Each structure stands twice: as structure tokens, then as C-alpha cells.
Amino acid sequence: MTLFDQIVLLLTGLTAIYITVRFWQEYQAKSEKPFQNIYYMLSFIVLLVAGLLLIFLKTWEVLNYPFILVVAYIIPLGLSLGLVTEFYNSYSKMYLIFGIIGLVLIILTKGLGMGSPGIKAFTSAIFHSVGGLIIFFVPVLAVKSGKAPSGFVFVTIGALLIGLGGLALAFLKGGSQLLFFSANFVFMILSPLLLLMTLSFTYGFMKKIVASK
After folding, report:
1. Residue range(s) defining the domain that contains residue 135
2. pTM of the full predicted structure?
3. Where are the alpha helices (DSSP H) in the chain?
4. In this structure, are residues 135 and 185 in contact, taking their beta carbons and an 8 Å threshold?
């Protein structure tokens, strides 16, 4: 990991702090507490902690640590739970149960190494995919239905960016390469990709926060 990567990760962390504070301010200001903000804050706090860990350890090898693989699920889980709670609240309890089951299974398979490689891959693919699809589609549907301002689609752009990076990393871990995404190229763009993702999420959510005042 280069000094440039560390600086970019620091900027990512500062952006995560900013949007977390804004979510908290909105939560405190509303008489009817927007509980989805708790889920959103959880995701960005976990992102902040993961980024700081990468900065201090100065290596991308951290991404192979079992607990990081668990953390990597909490970020999309929190965002998707928040989106479902905010825009499709009648399904929030059902999806919360689904998310908790996914978290437990990922802790068992990825964190503790239980199960065959096939089971590990299947569990990760199922629960990551569902969360990713929710983050990708719900902002678009919310804007289309008039429940959110047009700028909220930047949340979808953030989902697309991190999905691309995650897919490239998954191919590398599987011993193959996605298109021109070689190992050197992936690690070269990973920190800027994380920053762009966080900025996209922050811009999209800020548009919604401002519009809801």
C-alpha cells in the first residue's frame, strides 16, 4: 500500500464521519425518529473503522483476514436495511431477520472457517447479492415514485462502484481475472474506488436529507 492509498483512505474516512454526523443530526432533529438512520450510521462507522485499519496496517492483505470478510458484509447490510426500512417498511422486519441469518452464516463460514468452500461461496454470494441489489435498485425506484429527490440516484452509483470493485476482488481470490482487472490494477484503483463510492453515497443521502427538511 502506498502513501497515496493511505491519504485517499483517510479522505474516505473523513467523508464517512461527515455523513454519519449528518445522519445523527437528522435523527435528533426529527420528532418522529427516522430509525433507518441508525442502520445507515452503522454502515459508515464500520467503513470508517475498516479504512483506519487499512491505514495503520499499511497493507491490502488485511482484506484476506476472516473478520474483514465479516465486516465487508455489515456495510451493505446496514445500507440495505436502512433503505428497506425507509421506503418499504412493511418488509423491514422480514429483511432484518434475513440479514441476521446472513450475518450469522457469514460469521460461521467466513469468520470461523466452517463448511466446505462451496458452501462458503454460496453463502457469501446469496447474502451479498441481495444487499447489493437492494442498494442498487431502491434509490432508483424511490426517485421514480417521487419519494426521494433525483440526486438520490447517486446511492445507486455508489452501489455500482463498490460492486465492480468487489467483483474484481472476488475473481482475483478465485485465481482468475475479470477483463483487464489484474491484481496490480485492482489494488491501484481500490482506494480511489472506495473514496468515489463513499462520496457518491454521501452526495445521494445528503440530497435526501436536505430535501426532507
Report:
1. 3-211
2. 0.88
3. 3-29, 36-57, 66-87, 92-106, 117-144, 154-173, 183-211
4. no
